[in-house]
């Protein structure tokens, strides 16, 4: 078990395998770092990459991320999460409660490219495979995955004032994100690697088969969480 205050980034000898399952965390508007990380990974046509989002609400690079995913959807998969869901709620609301500049400009892009919007809105809340589950935030360990409501999946991260993942005892590995302040969390059955690239930290990937963690340092400070915005 590796606690959250331990950081590592070493090169492992890759196994002679045909396919890797690779996970990348919370890109937001860090599209340039995302592309650099993809280059470092030396992805081949057999590999599959899962984006453990968020990917939007950090304009303008979020559109580039979505378009890239759409154009490479045979090899890239993603799950919706809080920012994406808030955006879709805005689209479906007559009151337009979420009037951020990011959302307004993103909506204008989707109007021009309805085929990309149709793809985006149908992304799942979770992805379940034979050996792992990709989910952006959390789940209740005692409930079946399909029994969770959207509200449960997107609004709660603690159980009795403790992180949900320390209570998880399922057989499948859970890959989750959205907890940049918690940094690196690797346990036997849960992995969280949101290091807040948007806050001038770094973007990470994790390869399931080799346990390899790849890092791309943020190119600049995009958002300062210690400065209150107007």
What attributes does this structure have?
single chain; 230 residues; Purple Acid Phosphatase, chain A, domain 2; five-stranded mixed β-sheet; globular; disordered N terminus
**General shape:** globular
Largest sheet: 5 strands, mixed
Tell me the helix content: 25-40%
- Give the total of beta strands: 12
Unreliable stretches (pLDDT < 50, length at least 5) are: 1-13, 226-230
Rounded to an integer in angstroms, the radius of gyration calculated over CA atoms is 17 Å
CATH architecture: 4-Layer Sandwich
Instruction: List the secondary-structure elements in sequence, H or E.
Output: EHEHEHHHEEHEEEEEEE
Q: Give the tally of structural domains.
A: 1
CATH topology: Purple Acid Phosphatase, chain A, domain 2
Mean pLDDT: 78
- Fourth-tier CATH superfamily name: Metallo-dependent phosphatases
Structural class from helices and strands? alpha/beta
CATH class: Alpha Beta
Strand content: 15-25%
Helices, by number, come to: 6
Strand order of the largest sheet: 3-2-1-11-12
- Distance between the terminal alpha carbons, to the nearest Å? 41 Å
Question: What do you see in this structure?
Answer:
With 230 residues, this protein is α/β, with parallel strands linked by helices. The protein has six helices and twelve strands. The N terminus and C terminus are likely disordered. It is globular and about 45 Å long.
């Amino acid at each position: 078990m590796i606690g959250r205050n331990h950081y590592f980034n070493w090169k492992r000898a890759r196994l002679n395998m045909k396919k890797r399952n690779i996970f990348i965390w919370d890109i937001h508007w860090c599209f340039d770092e995302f592309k650099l990380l993809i280059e470092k990974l030396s992805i081949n046509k057999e590999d599959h990459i899962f984006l453990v989002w968020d990917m939007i609400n950090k304009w303008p690079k979020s559109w580039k991320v979505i378009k890239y995913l759409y154009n490479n959807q045979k090899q890239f998969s993603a799950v919706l999460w809080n920012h994406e869901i808030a955006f879709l709620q805005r689209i479906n609301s007559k009151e337009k409660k979420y009037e951020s500049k990011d959302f307004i400009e993103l909506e204008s892009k989707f109007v021009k490219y309805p085929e990309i919007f149709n793809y985006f809105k149908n992304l799942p809340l979770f992805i379940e495979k034979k050996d792992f589950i990709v989910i952006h935030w959390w789940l209740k360990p005692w409930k079946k995955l399909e029994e969770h409501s959207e509200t449960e999946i997107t609004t709660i991260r603690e159980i009795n004032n403790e992180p949900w993942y320390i209570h998880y005892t399922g057989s499948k590995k859970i890959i989750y994100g959205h907890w940049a302040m918690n940094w690196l969390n690797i346990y036997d059955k849960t992995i969280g690697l949101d290091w807040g690239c948007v806050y001038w930290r770094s973007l990470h990937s994790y390869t399931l088969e080799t346990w390899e963690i790849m890092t791309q340092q943020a190119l600049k400070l995009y958002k300062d969480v210690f400065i209150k915005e107007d």
